[in-house]
Amino acid sequence: MRETLVNWLPHVMERLPDLWEALADTLLMVLWSGAVSFLLGMLLGVLLTVTRPGNILENRPLYQIVDKAVSLFRSIPFIILLTWVMPLSRTLMGTTLYVRGAIVPLVFGSVPFFSRQVESALAELDRGLVEAALSMGSSPWEIIFRVYLRESVAAIARGTTITLVSLLNLTAMAGVVGAGGLGDFAVRYGHDRNWADVTNVTVVLLVVIVCIIEFIGGRVVRKTTH
Q1: Which domain covers residue 153, as residue numbers?
Q2: Whether 180 contacts 99, CB under 8 Å
């Protein structure tokens, strides 16, 4: 079996420890930046929803500030965002390289996207449920947790799945500027040295990760759909 792999994937087998390390780095970047992005994106998405004019915590100035800030960061290409937040990465993480240095730009790249996903998910909720909760004397916090979030789990799960796949793509770009991971591995060995087997295996691994994310996301959506 090993001889067959060596014949078909000579450069991959030669750099196998580097491949596993790159895979681990990619998963770490997705895990840590995904967890932080989920929390911050959920917070901003809910804030955009409840402070919107006509909603339960209407606050036009706050809504406008958050909405414009989210739109601003969404409009910046990620490769530019990487370099822009380098000073902040160095301050918070002590480095701009490797997995630690990639967390901050990945969070900045993912939070605006996920917050819009959450905002869209909450916007799908039947307005009648909110009005019914208000008529029963529910507080704004009760409406947020028991109505908005509880009734939008499936839609939020879909948005989370889309965001994780997008985040995986961002880790590949982050790898080009020193973050490590599969993106760095593919460029350094597949592209720069023209080793096609390295590029092909990297693509297959990324596709497998995406399929796993979508499978888990799909299961959550099916189980939480009323």
Answers
A1: 2-224
A2: yes
